[in-house]
Design goal:
Distance between the termini: 59 Å
Oligomer: single chain
Largest sheet: none
Structural class: mainly alpha
Strand content: under 5%
Radius of gyration: 25 Å
Length: about 140
């Protein structure tokens, strides 16, 4: 086998990999030492389980609704803080809240069935556009 030639110059170093810009730290809640969000989600999960055990009566259904609301508020709080601090975009999640509210209002107002999803999708699309603009301003 033949000998491979070597260059006698200085060693060639590979170019350093580009460093990704460092993201900001996750925003702290105003009540930081107290795990309020975690307690809210835990309480919501307990209410959901309790409501499932009593699903046949009105009290069980109320427990289910309260559990869903309380657990959802914990997630919504985190999503709001992360989105509006520029840490991570939660545009679709935040836009879904007004879309669900509009669908609920139209349902209980007796609107035609076809109007409910059309209105919800329109509100969702508009909310996503607005939430993305807000995130870009903060980012």
């Amino acid at each position: 086998m033949g000998r491979r030639s070597r260059k006698r110059g200085g060693a060639v170093r590979p170019a350093p990999a580009p460093v990704a810009p460092r993201r900001a730290e996750r925003p702290q809640a105003p009540w930081h030492p107290v795990p309020l969000v975690e307690l809210s989600v835990l309480t919501g999960l307990v209410l959901l389980a309790w409501g499932l055990l009593r699903i046949d009566d009105d009290g069980g259904r109320i427990l289910l609704v309260c559990g869903m609301a309380l657990a959802s508020l914990g997630g919504l709080d985190t999503a709001l803080r992360e989105h509006f601090s520029g840490y991570r975009s939660h545009a679709v999640l935040l836009a879904a809240l007004p879309a669900v509210v509009v669908a609920g209002v139209l349902f209980f107002a007796g609107a035609p069935w076809v109007a409910i999803p059309i209105a919800a999708v329109a509100v969702l699309a508009g909310g996503v556009v607005l939430a993305r603009r807000a995130f870009r301003r903060r980012g």
